[in-house]
């Protein structure tokens, strides 16, 4: 490590240790160093690969974007959204790398200078995976309602922060909600996110991106994207936290949700149904969802949050299995 990298590493560790510090620009060399030459892969998606890195003060996650799929504008839009998102329920953004390395390459019997675009993002490392992994891998959590309610509350608070700051996430799904050491939900992956201008309520797109299960009907039908699109995805995630990851028709979901005995779970089911209303204007805002959660917490004694939400597991499993399908019916 040379002197420049030593100073840069010290600066990154300072940002890591200070929650109020702003993200900084980082070199490709430093990120290669702390990830041990990108040797520890911890995640992979259509737009890049995530590696674990180590600092003296803790671990980080480094996302290497696919330079062929992510344009400079998309990369800068993501950084813009990340810089505007600082909340306990959003994965903390530490820094970015936007280097182009020149190197000689053979071409038609001679050598030419070619540029390699490096586009990387550095985040806090979140140790407990994502919500999809939580629901699919740990079957012992099926009846662990207090944790699931904490996740629902955390996702809603993180989304409220984003919407209050005019950030439309556009790709909310269980894979993009990480879990920290205390099982607090942290929203991540802002690759599709956009700022909405003051007074702007929606945007129109011809390129439908995202995961079909979580895409609101108006996006598919009209290409209309708004904060209410995020609300639709939130509703699907709440449903999955209530009854699991199985594919269930929204039209026949009530029978499954009626098997929930915990009062808070039943009220969360009602919130989820409102969030997944096929008509965008009939969905609540995230502030209204938070108000509903506040109301149910005031109505139901806090001791209830520590009880296990009893589910008729056998009947619920039979019901879900009888309604398996390849995609949600809107």
UniProtKB/TrEMBL annotation:
Specify the superkingdom: Eukaryota
InterPro entries from the UniProt entry: Kinase-like_dom_sf (IPR011009), Prot_kinase_dom (IPR000719), Protein_kinase_ATP_BS (IPR017441), Ser/Thr_kinase_AS (IPR008271)
Q: What is its EC number?
A: 2.7.11.1
Query: What span is annotated as the signal peptide, if there is one?
Result: none
Query: Catalyses which reaction?
Result: L-threonyl-[protein] + ATP = O-phospho-L-threonyl-[protein] + ADP + H(+); L-seryl-[protein] + ATP = O-phospho-L-seryl-[protein] + ADP + H(+)
Q: Tell me, what is one Gene Ontology molecular-function annotation carried by this entry?
A: ATP binding
Q: Does the keyword Kinase apply?
A: yes
The UniProt keywords, alphabetically, are: ATP-binding, Kinase, Nucleotide-binding, Serine/threonine-protein kinase, Transferase
Q: Which Pfam families match?
A: Pkinase
PROSITE patterns named in the record: PROTEIN_KINASE_ATP, PROTEIN_KINASE_DOM, PROTEIN_KINASE_ST
Q: Which residues bind ATP?
A: 63
Span of domain Protein kinase: 36-305
**What family name appears in the similarity comment?**
Belongs to the protein kinase superfamily.
How is this protein named in the record? non-specific serine/threonine protein kinase
């Amino acid at each position: 490590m040379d002197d420049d990298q030593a100073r840069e590493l010290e600066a990154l560790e300072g940002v890591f240790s200070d929650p109020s510090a702003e993200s900084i620009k980082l070199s490709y060399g430093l990120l290669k160093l702390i990830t041990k030459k990108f040797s520890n892969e911890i995640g992979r998606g259509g737009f890049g690969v995530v590696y674990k890195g180590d600092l003296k003060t803790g671990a980080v996650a480094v996302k290497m974007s696919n330079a062929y799929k992510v344009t400079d504008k998309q990369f800068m839009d993501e950084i813009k959204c990340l810089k505007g998102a600082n909340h306990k329920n959003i994965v903390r953004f530490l820094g970015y790398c936007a280097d182009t390395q020149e190197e000689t390459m053979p071409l038609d019997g001679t050598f030419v200078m070619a540029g390699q675009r490096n586009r990387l993002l550095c985040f806090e490392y979140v140790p407990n995976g994502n919500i999809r992994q939580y629901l699919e891998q740990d079957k012992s959590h099926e009846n662990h309602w207090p944790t699931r309610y904490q996740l629902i509350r955390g996702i809603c608070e993180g989304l409220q922060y984003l919407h209050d700051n005019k950030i439309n996430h556009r790709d909310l799904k269980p894979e993009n909600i990480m879990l920290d050491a205390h099982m607090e939900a942290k929203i991540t992956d802002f690759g599709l996110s956009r700022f909405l201008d003051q007074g702007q309520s929606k945007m129109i797109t011809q390129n439908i991106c995202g995961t079909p299960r979580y895409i609101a009907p108006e996006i598919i039908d009209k290409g209309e994207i708004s904060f209410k699109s995020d609300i639709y995805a939130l509703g699907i995630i709440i449903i999955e936290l209530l009854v699991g990851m199985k594919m269930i028709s929204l039209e026949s979901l009530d029978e499954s949700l009626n098997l929930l005995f915990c009062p808070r779970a039943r009220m969360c089911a009602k919130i989820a149904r409102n969030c997944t209303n096929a008509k965008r204007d009939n969905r609540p805002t995230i502030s209204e969802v938070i108000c509903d959660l506040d109301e149910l917490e005031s109505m139901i004694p806090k001791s209830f949050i520590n009880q296990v939400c009893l589910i008729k597991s056998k009947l619920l499993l039979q019901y879900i299995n009888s309604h398996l399908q390849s995609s949600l019916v809107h």
